[in-house]
Amino acid sequence: xxxxxxxxxxxxxxxxxxxxxxxxxxxxxxxxxxxxxxxxxxxxxxxxxxxxxxxxxxxxxxxxxxxxxxxxxxxxxxxxxxxxxxxxxxxxxxxxxxxxxxxxxxxxxxxxxxxxxxxxxxxxxxxxxxxxxxxxxxxxxxxxxxxxxxxxxxxxxxxxxxxxxxxxxxxxxxxxxxxxxxxxxxxxxxxxxxxxxxxxxxxxxxxxxxxxxxxxxxxxxxxxxxxxxxxxxxxxxxxxxxxxxxxxxxxxxxxxxxxxxxxxxxxxxxxxxxxxxxxxxxxxxxxxxxxxxxxxxxxxxxxxxxxxxxxxxxxxxxxxxxxxxxxxxxxxxxxxxxxxxxxxxxxxxxxxxxxxx
Length: 357
What we know:
By secondary structure, the chain is mainly β. It is built from 1 helix and 2 strands; from the N terminus they run αββ. A hairpin with a 6-residue loop joins β1 and β2 (206-355). The longest helix is centred in the first third of the chain and has 25 residues, at 5-29.
């Protein structure tokens, strides 16, 4: 089959047009002899053409890109670093002392004499009289109603919890160990005397001797084996309990009763009394007083002082600086270069081919 659908459709379309043309020609010219005109030329019969599909090998042009190695000369810049001495002037900061003058305001104190009018207070004694209430205590009899506490006894019924102990029978399953005697067969290692023949190396004779040989024997041994049995045992247990009973209890009930009593009570009574006393009375008089007052003044004075002033001085310094230079170097480089080539590629196509009958 063809890889180009356009060409295949064109060939099919051409075949269909050829078939249509053949059908028109056969329809217009072919027919019986009676259909021909009586006076015209004789009819020509066109044979029928048949078309078939056939696969044909065709070629199309394709462009392919290939890479080839090509040697080229390239100029490269190679850096070289070297150190150079550079002289530069640097401003170095430093402090210098400078003498300056300034006008300062200095406070001063001077004493000034002043006068003022002062009021003086003097004290003089005077004799005066006054009436004073003097308290006196007198005993007076008075009747007072007093509440006297009393206690009376009452019989009251009270519920009391009385402890008691009752016997209760209980039972439980108890494990009891009972010794059981039985006979067990055990293997015991014992010694047995066996007669053996020995060779005397000095005389070269065989001498009969006795030798002890270990032997294992089975011996019946009585053994006592403990057997655990479960038994039901009963015993009495004292169980504490309580019962409630009613009892008569004597109770002391507090009460009050009123009594009228006569008491002698101290009563304070005040009576007036005139007495003389001495009083200090203030007397004021005016006088002129002279006093010293400190007065503050401010005076201008020039003073000299030292100041540290920041300044800069030039200084020449030498330092080494890395300098980079580039030199040109020719270098042969192998590179891959794309090359476009034209190639004929075969493909299969289906075409309509006329076939003669």
